[in-house]
Amino acid sequence: MKDPLSVGLVAVPKQPGAGLRQVSRVALPGVAFWAAKGLSTAMGESVSDWSIRAMVPELAVVLGFVGFVAALAIQLTRGRYVPWAYWLAVGMVGVFGTMVADVAHVVLRVPYVLSFLGCAVLLAGVFLLWRQREGTVDVHAVTTSTREVYYWAAVVLTFAMGTALGDMAAVTLHLGYLTTAVAFAVLILLPVIGYRFLRWNAVACFWSAYVLTRPLGASIADWLGKPTTEGGLNAGAGLVGLLLALAMAGVVAWSARPGAKTP
């Protein structure tokens, strides 16, 4: 198992010429990766909340879907990791994923616990199929279009599952946004500590942390942007979303600067 914090070129199993080293088509974990990922989850929550209030909700959802499809299409046609394309896709997954979760709960009245369990089952299915067909779910081995499709299917479901989990804790369990954020900040330390000091499975630790960044970031965004009557600081979803988007763009630009070490 390769170190999830390692970078660069990776050996690809179960392919012709397996001894050759190929370039990953997605971002590899590192400090900048986790910073951008956390900001993307919070940004997606805020931008979604702002858009459905700034315009007709149905229009906001349609625009979110179009943006999501367009961003994902751009990413899938790159054939390699291109920072702006990859993080644009992640950002749009965050925005549209939040919209879908909100529609499922508010319009279809699906309880958060059912959304969470349903997404968890689907995510497990994607991982099982991905592992069965490709031999690994390690992000370092996402070097083919087939593996990248599996990767993005998993990413979308982690965002959906994480959204439901965060809302379930904050709303259904009445923990509030700040308490929920603190709780997930503590939980995300478990895979970090497990990987660093207890030799837990590297791939399992990566995907566990990946899921947990969603409820952590979204809870922080809600705490900052929601009205005080809802347990927030009333900074406004629009302002919070804009600041988070700028911060995310800054992290991505910094990590992609000439001479910067990847990821």
SSE topology sketch:
Blueprint: E1 9-11, E2 21-23, H1 31-54, H2 57-76, H3 83-107, H4 112-134, H5 145-172, H6 177-187, H7 189-197, H8 202-225, H9 237-255
Antiparallel strand pairs: 1-2
Helix pairs in contact: 1-2, 1-3, 1-8, 1-9, 2-3, 3-5, 4-5, 5-6, 5-8, 6-8, 7-8, 8-9
Characterization of this structure:
The protein starts with 8 loop residues before the first strand and ends in an 8-residue tail after the last helix. The chain has helices spanning 31-54, 57-76, 83-107, 112-134, 145-172, 177-187, 189-197, 202-225, 237-255; strands at 9-11, 21-23. The chain contains nine helices and two strands; from the N terminus they run E-E-H-H-H-H-H-H-H-H-H. It is an all-alpha fold. It is globular and about 50 Å long. The longest helix is centred in the middle third of the chain and has 28 residues, at 145-172. It has a two-stranded antiparallel sheet.
